[in-house]
Specification:
Elements lengths: L12 E4 L5 H13 L10 E2 L2 E2 L7 E3 H4 L6 H10 L4 E5 L1 H4 L2 H13 L5 E5 L4 H4 L12 E4 L7 H13 L3 H32 L4 H33 L2 H16 L8 H20 L3 H21 L4 H20 L3 H21 L4 H19 L5 H21 L7 H17 L3 H21 L4 H20 L3 H21 L4 H25 L1
Helix pairs in contact: 3-5, 8-9, 8-10, 9-10, 9-11, 10-11, 11-12, 11-13, 12-13, 13-14, 14-15, 15-16, 15-17, 16-17, 17-18, 17-19, 18-19, 19-20, 20-21
Length: about 525
């Protein structure tokens, strides 16, 4: 192989890790060498050379290094022959002089080759070796923790960095391949259940096989509806999200729901909510509400059977939130209030049961935020909006503090600052409104530098530009207001170009364009 420009290399990557992280290093090594690059990417010319079908060989010093009289010479030879360096980052790695020397040596030998950080524990400040970031050359970071990018997206970030392709395209191709896999597994599960029905003489064996196949299929479906869905939302792939939701529903609709265990029923309710979310993004609100209410019907029954079970509480909270948010969007405010109050009650119960549970605290932040948004709708209740928005921000700040990876909830924290800004504004305090909007903007700008292709972050950036522009105009800064409105419109147009089918983004572009029209009209009226 060669590292672009014809420079020969022996290894696709060198994995550096501390002795404490041997298990993680071995696992990552195995995953990388077993990973098969999607066919449509293989052979493409990149700065790293042609995209390979397989990533191997990958060098792992404890695995590939034979006994030698001079260990440093062997390590130097391996680093000299590696196209990239992967550093498994943890508090142990930060304290390891061996890892630090390997980073220094690789960079001295290959100043232009990629260094990739695979965070497996802690936060960057406590887990990145000092030699990893030298100011001029920041590493490409992948947080493999579930509170960060997650195991799957984090792994794909590493793959993208090794072979030199865009993350969004790799995610899309990888998702398409896994969708084909779940179709095959679903078919096997259905075939197993049919065999169980027909082969009565081997009923027990067939039942066990069908249960095994169902568990395998449901494992893939759960991945599709959680980790994969988050990944696709981040890169703005509404078409792939639609395919994920339809595949999951196909599996659930082939089951006898009443005979499934509660966890499997919850999974099918989540499939309904996921499908409804895609429909809502496409502008089909009535169909979206039908899906949400079908999911609601599943989770409310499960909760009634086991009202103190946190899993049942969590699942039904998601259904209540989905129904409430869509009802709010349709201006059915009484229906929205009923759902939001139920959601808040469940989320607060979870937060009280787990005051150190970051995920439950986050949910309580969302729930109070929904009631804040309802209080800001006509007819407005300024005092109630301020109460719920403050509580929502406090809950989200607690979630960030409790999370081992604060950036996992950073965008949610930005959103809570946004709603509190609106609450301060209707209470007549533009100074505090501006203070919260600037806090929101600071978070969003930091996230954009970290993940410039994340469409959720870009959506939030457009929103905060529009809001700050309105505040600037109210303060008499019309030129600054125009500059922010124009930036918001450019951002919205770029999002629509990325996915023209996303009605939410198209609506945002129309609003951003309307902002400038309204500003021109106000300026003309002011000059008359």
């Amino acid at each position: 192989m060669d590292e672009g420009g014809g420079v020969p290399t022996r290894y696709r990557a060198f994995i550096s890790y501390s002795h404490q992280d041997t298990v993680a290093g071995r696992r990552l090594h195995r995953r990388l060498e077993r990973y098969v690059v999607p066919k449509r990417l293989v052979g493409r010319a990149t700065a790293r050379g042609p995209v390979p079908r397989l990533l191997g060989p990958i060098f792992r010093d404890r695995e590939d290094l034979p006994a030698a009289d001079n260990l440093s010479e062997e390590v130097r030879a391996a680093l000299a022959g590696s196209a990239s360096l992967i550093v498994v980052c943890s508090p142990g790695a930060r304290q390891s002089p061996w890892v630090a020397r390997e980073i220094e040596l690789f960079r001295s030998l290959h100043p232009d080759r990629p260094v990739l950080a695979a965070l497996i524990a802690g936060v960057p400040a406590d887990s990145f070796p000092d030699t990893l970031a030298d100011g001029a050359r920041e590493p490409l970071a992948a947080d493999l923790q579930r509170t960060g990018d997650g195991p799957r997206l984090g792994f794909l970030k590493l793959v993208a960095g090794i072979v030199g392709v865009g993350l969004d395209e790799l995610v899309q191709r990888d998702a398409q391949r896994r969708l084909r896999a779940v179709t095959a597994v679903t078919g096997m599960a259905l075939a197993g259940m049919l065999a169980m029905a027909l082969l009565t003489t081997t009923a027990i064996g067939a039942r066990r096989e069908a249960e095994h196949q169902r568990a395998e299929a449901e494992g893939i479906v759960e991945f599709m509806l959680t980790e994969l869905r988050d990944t696709l939302e981040g890169v703005g792939r509404l078409d792939a999200l639609d395919a994920v939701s339809r595949r999951a529903l196909e599996y659930c609709e082939a089951q006898d729901l009443d005979r499934l265990p509660p966890k499997s029923q919850e999974l099918c309710a989540l499939a309904r909510v996921s499908s409804g979310t895609v429909l809502q993004s496409r502008g089909d609100l009535e169909a979206a509400m039908r899906e949400f209410k079908r999911g609601w019907g599943i989770t409310v029954t499960l909760l009634a059977d086991d009202p103190d079970n946190p899993d049942r509480m969590w699942a039904h909270a998601q259904s209540e939130q989905a129904v409430g948010e869509l009802a709010f969007a349709q201006e059915r405010l009484d229906e929205a209030r009923t759902a939001f109050e139920a959601y808040r009650s469940l989320a607060d119960r979870l937060a009280e049961r787990g005051p150190d549970n970051a995920v439950w605290l986050r949910e309580a932040g969302f729930a109070h935020g929904n009631l804040c948004s309802l209080a800001l709708a006509d007819p407005q209740d300024p005092a109630e909006s301020l109460e719920h928005c403050r509580t929502g921000l406090t809950r989200m700040q607690a979630a960030v503090a409790a999370s081992p990876q604060p950036d996992a909830f950073a965008l949610d924290l930005a959103n809570r600052h946004a709603w509190l800004a609106d609450a301060w504004r209707v209470n007549g305090d533009d100074a505090r409104a501006r203070e919260n909007r600037l806090a929101e903007e600071a978070i969003v700008l930091r996230l954009m530098r970290k993940e410039p292709a994340n469409m959720k972050v870009r959506l939030r950036w457009v929103a905060v530009q529009r809001a700050l522009a309105a505040l600037e105009y109210s303060a008499g800064q019309s030129d600054l207001a125009r500059s922010r409105f124009e930036a918001a419109l450019r951002g919205a147009e770029a999002m629509v170009a990325h996915d023209p089918m996303n009605e939410q983004w198209a609506a945002l572009r129309r609003k951003a364009a309307g902002d400038l029209v309204a500003l021109d009209r106000l300026e003309r009226e002011r000059l008359q």
